[in-house]
Amino acid sequence: MDAVYGRPVAVISSEGVDFGGALAYGRKAGGALRRMTFHERARALKALGAFLMERKEAYYALSALTGATRRDSWVDIEGGIGTLFSYASAARRELPDERFWPDGRLERLGREGTFVGRHLLVPREGVAVQINAFNFPVWGMLEKFAPAFIGGMPSLVKPAPQTAYLTERVVRDIVASGLIPEGTLQLVTGEPGSLLDHVEEQDVVAFTGSAATAAKLRVHPAIVGRSVPFNAEADSLNASVLGLSVKPEDPEFALFVREVAREMTGKAGQKCTAIRRALVPSHLVEAVTEGLRRELSKVTLGDPARDDVRMGALVSVEQRERVRETLEKLQQEARVVISGEATLLGGDREKGAFLDPTVLLCETPLTAKGPHELEAFGPVATLLPYDSLEDAIHLTKLGRGSLAGSIVSRDRAEATELVLGMASSHGRLLVLNRDNAKENTGHGSPLPQLNHGGPGRAGGGSELGGLSAVRHHMNRVAVQADPTTLTSITREFVPGAEVTEDVVHPFRKSFDEIQVGDSLLTHRRTVTEADIVNFAGLTGDHFYAHVDEIGAREGIFGKRVAHGYFLISAAAGQFVSPAPGPVLANYGLENLRFIEPVGIGDTIRTRLTCKRKIRKDLRPGETRPTGVVEWRSEITNQDGVLVATYDILTLVERARDEFDPPAEDSSVQA
C-alpha cells in the first residue's frame, strides 16, 4: 500500500524462487565481473550512475508513495546515485588498473633481500547477499552494491517489502542499461525464505535493519558453520549533545534546535542515524523545549507530493502503530512536552500512515531505562537533562553503541572531552558549530568517504568509509617469493628484482612503451663544498649541519653534510632527459627517506626504475591522453650504500585507446 492514501501500489512475492539456484548463478556470472579490472568496473559504475540520473524523475514519483517528500527523496535517490559516482572516482584515483589490489607495504623476509612478502586483495568468488531496510530503498541498495561491484562481487539484493517497488524500478533500469555484466545484480522482493540456507564460504552477507533481527541472522547455522562474513548495520539510539558552554543567544543554540527538529522530521524520523536522545544542560531544558516547539510548529504535514508539505507519512500504517506502541512505553519514564495533531495538507488520516512530531522529557535520565533501550522509529525524540560532561558522556553510552552522535559546541576543550569520551561507543561523530554550519551535512547523513556503522547495538559492522568497504568483498592473501617473481605477479617493481636497461633513455619512451622494471643507472657526481655553499645561498637554508664547520663537528654527523634536498636536485640532474618528449611534467614525489649522510668528497649516483603505471582518463577539455608513471629513485654513495630513496611521479603522454572519447569531441568524458 502507498503510505499517504493507503491505496494498493504493488504485489510482491518470492513464491517459486530457487534461492540456491540464484546464488549458484550469481557465483558463476561473477566470473565476468572478476575478469574486469578496477578501472573497468569504475567506468561501468560511472556510466551506470549517469544512466540512472537521467531517469530520476520516475523514481521521485514512486518515492512520494513511500511517504517521502522531495527533499527526503533527494537523499535517497540522488544520494544513492551519487554513491556510485563516489566509488567510481575513488577506484580510478586510488586503485590500480588490475584485477587485484596490492595491500600494505613490502615485507623483507630475508637478510639478503632475496625473500620478500606482500599482501594482495583479490575478489571473493561468491555473491554479496544484501538485505536492506525500508527507509532508503534506493540509497540502501546502491551504497552496498557500489563497493561490492568495485570489489568484483555480484550482488543479490533483498529490499524490505514496504518500499520494494521503488527498488525494483531502479533494478529494472540497471538491468535494461546493459552497462554491467549479466548476473551482476539480482533482486528478490518477497520473503527471503531459505536464502541464507544456501550461502557458502565465498559469499558475504550485509544486513541493515533492527538490532533484534541482526542478532538472529548473525547466528544462522549456514553463516556460523561456513564462516560467512556477516556485516550488520542496525538501528541505534543516537544522541546529540548541546554543550554546557552554550548560551541561548549563541548561534550554537539555534543550530542544536534546528538539527534536532530536522532529524525528527526528515524521512518522518525513519532514519537509523536520526537523533533519538537530545542531551541538554539542565538549566536550558525549558529554553530548548520552547525552541523546538517553535521550530516544529513550522512543519507542515501531508501528501509529500505537494510543494507546501515538509513532512510526509511513515512508511506504513503498521509502522505507525509500532511507533505509537513504543511511545506508550516511553511515557512510563518520560512525559510528552510537545505533541498535537496538525491539519493534513493532503493524504488520509485513517488509511495513511501519518504521525505528528512528538517530543518527550525524561527528568531522571541517569536511572531511567526506556529512553536508552526503546527506539520509536518515527518523528520522536526525548530530551535528557544533564549537569556535567561526565554525565553527558555516560548518558550517550547507555545506548550501548550508536551509529552517529553529534556535539554542538564552539568550546574546543569541551568538544575534545566529549569526542574522546564518546568515541568508543560511536561509529561517527559530528562536532557542529557556527564555523562549519554552512557546509556541514548534518547529524544523520552518512557520506561515502566516511564510516557508516557502529559498535554494540548499532550492529558492530562497517559500511562505506571510502575504499574500506571494497575490502569487505575481497580476500587478503600473503604472497611470499623472490623479488623478481613478486614483481611479475604484482606488476609493481620490488627492490632487488631484475631490471631492464636499454640504450633508449626511459624518459624518451611513451607511457605505452615504458615497462615496469625499465631502469637507468646514472653517471656519478662528487659533492663539493661549493655545492653545499651555493645551495645554501640559493635556498636560504643555512642550517649549521651544512655550513658551520665547528657546529657540524659537534653535531650527530661529526662533519658538514650536504642538504637532503640538494641530493634530490642533484639526482634529478643525473636522470632527467632535458629535450622535449613524452614526459610532460613532474607529478609529485612520495615516500622520501634520507638514510645516510653525504659529506664533502662523497660521490653519488642514482638508479631510476619504473615502479608502476597508472592510466589517466581524459577530462573535459583535455586533448592529450596521459598516464602517470611512478619511478623508484635510489641514491647511493661511492661504497654502494643507499643514502636516499623516494618515488617520483611523472605525467607521460600515451596513445589514445578504446576508453578515450573521440578526438573531435574532447569535451566528452571517458
Automatic annotation (TrEMBL):
InterPro entries: Ald_DH/histidinol_DH, Ald_DH_C, Ald_DH_N, Aldehyde_DH_dom, HotDog_dom_sf, MaoC-like_dom, PaaN-DH. Pfam families: Aldedh, MaoC_dehydratas. The keyword Oxidoreductase applies. The lineage of its organism: Bacteria, Thermotogati, Deinococcota, Deinococci, Deinococcales. SUPFAM superfamilies: ALDH-like, Thioesterase/thiol ester dehydrase-isomerase. Keywords: Oxidoreductase. Residues 21-419 form the Aldehyde dehydrogenase domain. Residues 453-464 have a biased composition (Gly residues). Residues 437-464 are annotated as: Disordered. Residues 516-617 form the MaoC-like domain. It comes from the Bacteria. This is Bifunctional aldehyde dehydrogenase/enoyl-CoA hydratase.
